[in-house]
């Protein structure tokens, strides 16, 4: 696990944008795994700027999003379909038919989850999976106690996740109770994982993910099993880590080093 700690959110986000740019520049038809949430908005804004500056093209890229709320149609302003178009897809040259997100309004959500899992399997595999982290350590919508061997399926959201996400809805009642999410095993099959966490509200989950035991109690701790997982943090998100001086020593100011 590579732990890169930056002095602020802007520099952390820049580093993640560079991961995306490097991946797409090396392989224009890369398969990207995308994440949603407030943390990712600055990243997508930056990627849109890089595109407008002529530094990258997404025209041959395929994308798979981590998750979607059950019950929301793609046009719903709080759906992740809407989020992705608004934050990213509508502003770059990506081919919309190559952007995949589970359909939360499918008549049979379980079947939709299976269809999505096989769509990922039929692609050439995800080259770079972007991840955020919930305050309770969830990745995608894999809430605590999710099986570390899980595949794309329906997950019931915890009260804390619904509380955290209710800001986007008119009230807690409006916030969906269920989601379709890639499973933890699905996520771990991506060739490279990059998780971005910023702000003090993520510091406990970040410490459990990096320095705690591998446990379904903190789904993100499963990243410890992945051979190419990079955790990109600002100082606040890193504030409860114990081995901080080691991380700074290996990657001063989040820089790359010859040896990890
Ligand atoms: C949602 C998403 C996650 C995301 C998390 C954190 O639950 N399903 O993929 O990581 O929110 O979001 P935020 O960045 O808003 O804290």
Main attributes?
binds 2-amino-2-deoxy-6-O-phosphono-alpha-D-glucopyranose, 16% strand, seven-stranded parallel β-sheet, alpha/beta, 32% helix
What's this, in brief?
The protein has 260 residues and is of the alpha/beta class. Helices cover 32% and strands 16% of the residues.
Which small-molecule species are bound to the chains here?
2-amino-2-deoxy-6-O-phosphono-alpha-D-glucopyranose
Which percent bin holds the helix content? 25-40%
Strand order of the largest sheet: 1-10-9-6-2-3-5
Q: What is the number of beta strands?
A: 10
Major pleated sheet: 7 strands, parallel
Q: What radius of gyration results from the CA coordinates?
A: 17 Å
| Helix-and-strand structural type | alpha/beta
C-alpha end-to-end distance: 9 Å
Multimeric status of the protein: single chain
**Sequence of secondary-structure elements:** EHEHEEHEHEEHEHEHEH
Shape: globular
Describe this structure in words.
- The radius of gyration is 17 Å and the shape is globular.
- It has eight helices and ten strands.
- The relative contact order is 0.18.
- The protein is α/β, with parallel strands linked by helices.
- The strands form two sheets. It has a seven-stranded parallel beta sheet with strand order 1-10-9-6-2-3-5, with helices on both faces. Strands 4-8-7 form a three-stranded antiparallel beta sheet.
- Strand 2 (31-34), helix 2 and strand 3 form a beta-alpha-beta unit.
- The chain has helices at residues 9-26, 38-52, 80-87, 109-122, 159-165, 184-188, 203-211, 244-250, and strands at 2-6, 31-34, 62-65, 67-69, 99-100, 128-131, 153-156, 178-181, 192-197, 229-234.
- The chain binds 2-amino-2-deoxy-6-O-phosphono-alpha-D-glucopyranose (GLP).
- 2-amino-2-deoxy-6-O-phosphono-alpha-D-glucopyranose (GLP) is lined by residues 35-39, 66-67, 132-134, 140-141, 161.
